[in-house]
Write a structure and sequence with these properties.
The complex is a heterodimer of chains A (about 450) and B (about 325). Chain A is an alpha/beta fold and about 450 residues long. In chain A, about 45% of the residues lie in helices and about 10% in strands. Chain A folds into 2 domains: about 210 residues, D-Maltodextrin-Binding Protein, domain 2 (3-Layer(aba) Sandwich); about 200 residues, 3-Layer(aba) Sandwich (D-Maltodextrin-Binding Protein, domain 2). The termini of chain A are far apart. The chains are: A alpha/beta (about 450), B mainly alpha (about 325). Chain A: Belongs to the bacterial solute-binding protein 1 family.
Chain lengths: ~450, ~325
Amino acid sequence: MSRTPSPAAAAALAASLATVLLVSSCGVKNSGNAQHAQGGSAADLVSAAKAQGQVDYWSTWGEKEPQAAIFKAAADDFTAQTGIKVNIKYLGRSGTTTMPQAIASGSGPDMFDSGTDHIAAFAGQHMTQPIDGVLKLPVPGEDGKSVADVLPPNVLKSATDKDGKLAFVPHTLISTAIWYDAARSPALAAKQPATWTEFLALLQQQKAAGATPIAQDGLVNFYNAYWFYELMMRYAGPGSLAALGTDASAWDRPEVLKAAQGVAELRPYFQDGFMGTKYPAAQNDWAQGKAALNINGTWLPSETRPQAPADAKPSSFTFPMVEGGHSTVEVGSLGWSLSAKAKHAEAAQLFMSHLLRSQVIGRIGTDALNIPSRADAKAPDALKAAQESILKATETNTTYDGATAQDKWWNNVFLPLDDQLLSGTLQPADFVAQGKKKTADALANG
Amino acid sequence: MADTSTARGASRSSRPAFRTAGRARPGAAQGVSQRDAKGWFRLFTWPAVLLYPVGFLGPSLYGVVISFAKWSGPGAPLTWVGWRNYVRVFRDDTVRQAFVNTALVVLVGGAAVFALAFLAMAVLRDMRGRAFVRAAVYLPSIISMIAVGTSLGFLLNPDGVVNRLLGLLGLEALQQTWLDPQHIFGCIVVGVVWMGSGFYIVLLMTAVDAIPKHLYEEAQLTGLTRMQQFRWITLPLSRDMIAIAAVLWTANSLRTFDIVIGFVGTAGTPSVNARTYAVQQWLSAGHTTGGGAPELGYASAMATLLTVLTVALVVLVRRLGRSDRLEIS
C-alpha cells in the first residue's frame, strides 16, 4: 500500500530534509525527559518518522465539520509527500471520555485534539507529553521557517502548560469579546465604548431607546461568568481569578468587590427573564437583531450565522477598560496534542509541522470561519477585530484565566455564586463574603 | 456403550420418581431424571454465572475499592486515601443540596405519581375506552427523558409556548421565568411526574384487572360508592403490586439524571438548584465544563453511598408494604 511520491512532492520532501539537516547542524540538543517530545535533532525525527510510516490521529471534530475536512485534506497531502500514512478516527465531541482508557492501555492514538481548557485535565490523566521538539521543525515549503517562527508568542503561550512546556500545537485561536451587528448598529460600528463608563452609558442609551441592550443565555453558567471574569482581568489582571480558587484570602482584594459591583451594574440591561433563558435562545435573538450586544467566544459569528439576516455584519470589541486597570486580552487555542504513549511519536510531530503550512491554517479562516493560529493567515471579517486585538496584545491571559483547572471549585463554588450575583439574589458584598467562606471550606474539604 | 448408558439412565430415572411422588416435580412426572434435569439446569446457568460476576459484581466491587482512592482514571496514579472521600461527601454543601433535590423527587414526585395512579385505579377500572386511555398515559414513558427535558426546556423559555399560551388566555399573572434557579427544579419534578406516572398507572391497573368483577358487582348492590370500592376492594387486593411499584419508583427516582441534563442542556453545568445526586456524581466524574481531572474515587464514594441508600430504602419500602396475602373465595 506504500505510495510513490510525485516528483514535485519528492522535491519538496528533499528540500524539507535539507532544511532539517541545516537546522540540526546548528547543534540542537535533546533536552528534557521526554525523548520523543524533545525529539533529538530534527533530522533524526524525520528519519524516525519515515521509519514509523504511519500516524494514528483521533479527532473530536465531526466528520462533516469544516475542520475535519481541512485536516483530512492535509493528511492526504502529507501522505503524498512523505509516504507516511495518516489513520484518522472520528470520535465526536464525547471522544475525550474514552480516550484516557485507550491511551492508558496502549491502544490509543499518537495524536488527538486538544485545547487550552484541557491542558490541566489531560496532564492530570497523564494523557499527553510536552512537544517542544515540534517548535524547531521546519514548516515545509516555507523557506526554512520553523513552527516557532510562524506561531506568534501570544499563541504559543496559550498552548503552554504550567511548567512552560508546549502542551499542543495550536491551529485555531479563541477569545472572548462583546459582539454587535455592524449592519444594525452603525453608530456602534463607528465608535465602540473603550471604557467601562462609556459602556454603561451605551447600555443606558440602548435601554432608553426601548431596545434590549444585552442578550444573555442565563442557563449557561460559564457564559454568565464572562462578566465577572473579564472585570477581574481588567481590575486585577491575569492570575487574579484563578487565585480565588486556590487561596481564600484572595477574595479580600478590593478588586474582587469592584468586579462584583461592576457585574451588579449590568443587571438592568439584560433581556427579561434572562436567568431562565435556555441556550441558544438569547444568542439567536442577538443574531436576529432583538438585542444589541452579546458577550461570547469567537465562535459566535459562525454559530449564529444560520439565524442571522443575510446582511448581518457581526463584529466585536474588546472588554472595556477600567481606570488604572489591565489591558490584558484573552488568548485561548485549539490544536493537537501528542499522546503520552504514542507509538509513532516522530511521525505525529512531523505531521503537525505539515499541518501548520499556511495553505492549511489559512483554511481555518476561510473554510471554518475561525481565527487561524498563524499571524499571516486572515481571519473572516467578523473576527478581524478579535484577531487584531490578540496579535497586538502586550498582556494576555488564558480562557477564564485558567480558573477552570480548579474544576470542583469552579463548578461547585464559583459558578453558582456568580449566577446568584448576576441574577441579583446575592449582592456584591455578600458574594465576596460567601466566596471567601465557601472557597475556604472547599479547600479544607479537599 | 449406548445400551449400557440407556439402561443406567433408566435405572436413575426410576428412583427420583419414588422420592418425589406427590410433590409435583414435572421432570420426574415426564420421565426425565432429576440428575439430568439438574445437569441441563447447570449447563444453562453457566452463561449467567459467568456474566454476572464479570459484568456486574466485578465492576461494582471495583467501584467500591476505587472509592477509597484518589484517582483520575486510567493512566493516572492511584493514591489510597482511606475513608477521606466519604468524609468529603458528607461535608460537601453541593452534594447536600443535590441530595435534598433527589429526596424531593422521590417523596414529592412519588406522592404525585401514586396519587395519579390511585386515581386511575378508581376511575379507569370500568371506564369506556380505558385501553386507549391507558395507552395514551403510558406514551410519555417510552419517550427519551432527554427528549422530554429538552422539549420542556424550550417550551418554558421566557418567551416560550407556555408563557405565550398563558398570555393568550389572559393569565399574565401566572407567567414565570420557569427555568431560573428559583423555579427550575419544580419544573423538573413536574416533568418527572408526567413521564413516570404512565408506567405506574399501567402497572397498577394490571393488579386491578386481576380482581374478580363480582366483588365490585356485589359492592354496587350493597350501595358502596366508587371511592369506598377503591378503599375496601381495589386497594387491599392490589397491595402487593403497589409495594412492587413503590420499590421500583424508589430505585428509579433516586437515579434521576437525564431529564435534568435535557432541561439545562449540555452547554454549561446545571445550577446547584437543579442538580440531583446522580447529576452531581456525573459532574464529579469529570463531565464538567472545567478543565480539571475527573475525581473518580470521589464519584465512586458517592455511587457506593447511593447504592447503600437505595438498598436500605427498598428494604424499608418492602417491609412497609408487607402484608398477608388475601385469599379470594
